[in-house]
Specification:
With 397 residues, this protein is an all-alpha fold. Helix 11 runs antiparallel to helix 12 and helix 11 packs parallel to helix 13. It is a multi-pass membrane protein. It is found in: Cell membrane. Keywords: Cell membrane, Membrane, Transmembrane, Transmembrane helix, Transport.
Amino acid sequence: MNVSSTKRRLCPCIAKDSPPLCSLTSSPSHYQLYTTLSPDFSLIILSAAKQFAGVFVPAEVRDVSLTYVRLSAFTTFSGALEYAISNATRALDYPDVPLLINLARFAINIILDLLLISRFHVGSITPTVNMQAGIRLACDMVAASAGLAYFLFLTWRQLSKPSLNALKILLRPGIMTFVESAIRNALYLWLVSNIVAMGAEYATAWSIFNTIRWGLVMVPVQTLEASALTFVGHRWGRWRHASEPNKASWKDIQYITRPAIIAAGIALIVEIPLAIGLSLAGAQSFAYYLSQSASVAKITAYMWRTIDWCYIFYALSTQLATILLATVPRWYLYQSLVSNIFYVLPWAVVCQTRHLNADNAWTYHALVFGGSLVFSFFDIVVFLVAWSLRLQKGKMA
């Protein structure tokens, strides 16, 4: 079994290249808050590694996974730091900083993989899954440090003295997105604990499914989201500055929302062929390559074919949600609360109370993960209709 498949068996809740748990945000203050709290999260996971493994690691490999869990605890901090710098600088119109971060992570990852865990590695080193966790930690820390140093180099002459008023300006929208992500990810972790309880094979299939949806679906969509968010925010600011008393015409609404609409169109062009290709052949082959297990690959392919169409709704809703997030962040929080409280939470309770096993669990998990994407799309559309109506009446100032 290769290192990547072993890693997924040891800790299936951590997918390869998945971002930190509190993602999908835009306010720089949110990233500051999460980066400040992430060392505490790391220490909590480190000190409670055994209990953490008891919840999120299948019983078959629980005893040998503690070292991996302890190493992965620090990726909470390193990943948060790297993700915070990348997204905050993008929101501040420094897209070259995340580019440098990705280049640095890619370069150090290639070098360390070749030196330590490839077939041609140096010396008599025996590659292990714990070594792979250390490599990921090193990649995140080097990339984050390089990005931070480059950002400070670009802006050191522009830096103004920090003030409480400046913090308050950033903190208000940041609290909205922080609360939203905290609620969303608390429910997600609750569901993951139920998935892990289905056994190592099911949990490994879920982990590989996560790798597919993050790496091939969600990361490209979230890249488009970051661009749409920036441009919608700029247009919203220009319109607010130029319009009195902030009563919008239909032409104004089109002007503000155009970047999000274009991003949604691009997402459809990319994601529809990708979903079809993965469903026809790609998902099972890719899953077998990662797991080296025919049964795991079959389960993963079934998972993907069941809810692949739901990610079309995800691609659309993510771009459309940037309109709310860039203009009225509290409405973004409200629509997320509606989705999580009225759809995800009831189904999460069902998953915990029903007597699920590996044979019937995906029926319920598909309704949670796939259904929530569809529900969120229509939820966001309703909020956008209300947003546009209130904007035309001048009630969103």
